[in-house]
Amino acid sequence: MQAAYYFVSFSILKAAESTFFKVFCCSGCCSAYRKDIVLPIIDKWLKEKFLGLPVTWGDDRALTNWVLKLNYDTIYSEEVRAFTIVPSTFKKFLKQQIRWKKGWFVNSLFASRFIIKKDPFVAFTYFLPLIFVTLVTPFMATRSLIYNPLVKGLSPMYYIVGVLLVSAAMTTYYRYLERENKYWPYVFVWSAINMFILSFILFYALITIQNRKWGTR
């Protein structure tokens, strides 16, 4: 399931961002930076704080922010191959997702401080809308999956079908890019878990934002 998620995240989202030379997170799984760019900012990156405490997660996204802030380009290459360790249990998986949500939230706030000035087009057509959709998704899921069925007696079917249709669109593109990839059916599994469980993780991540533990180590 995470192999399918990584494929969508990289080959669709990061590939789209790369067309503007603005990949907003050079993933910790496999990234390369120019030494002369990183060394002058490495101390600032390591000492970043949020609400008075050190930021211990989202380090890859944070470093990318610094590079973008300095007006350098970040790109994605589909020819690179890397292997990464993923959670082996559902409990570890949830902890990973909570950590990712925290890192995404904090670093999105940091990036929003400069991206509007650096690249207004990318900011208003992609970056800010993506933040908005991500923030409202938990409320939409709560209303569609919990409030409407329990309070108003309305079926959540339209919401569920809508999410699956988006998954189908991504899967179609997935199959077009790599016919031999066997993980494409798991895009639907990821979408289902994201819809019924992970959509609500953002609430918990924000409530526990001051907990800076890594979670899975």
Set out the fold topology.
Elements: H1 2-18, H2 35-38, H3 42-46, E1 49-50, E2 53-54, H4 59-69, H5 90-118, H6 120-152, H7 157-177, H8 186-196, H9 201-207
Antiparallel strand pairs: 1-2
Written overview of the protein:
The chain is an all-alpha fold and 217 residues long. The chain has one domain (2-207). The protein has nine helices and two strands, in the order H-H-H-E-E-H-H-H-H-H-H. It has helices spanning 2-18, 35-38, 42-46, 59-69, 90-118, 120-152, 157-177, 186-196, 201-207; strands spanning 49-50, 53-54. It has a two-stranded antiparallel ribbon. A hairpin with a 2-residue loop joins strand 1 (49-50) and strand 2. The protein is globular and about 60 Å long. The model has no long low-confidence stretch (mean pLDDT 91).
Q: In a nutshell, what does this entry contain?
A:
Helices cover 64% and strands 2% of the residues.
- Tally of DSSP β-strands: 2
> Which ranges are low-confidence, i.e. pLDDT below 50, for 5 or more consecutive residues?
none
Strand order of the largest sheet: 1-2
Beta percentage is under 5%
Number of domains: 1
Q: Termini distance?
A: 21 Å
Major beta sheet summary = 2 strands, antiparallel
Number of helices: 9
- The coarse silhouette is globular
Estimated helix fraction: 55-70%
Chain-averaged pLDDT: 91
Radius of gyration: 18 Å
**Class computed from helices, strands and strand pairing:** mainly alpha
* Element-by-element helix/strand order: HHHEEHHHHHH
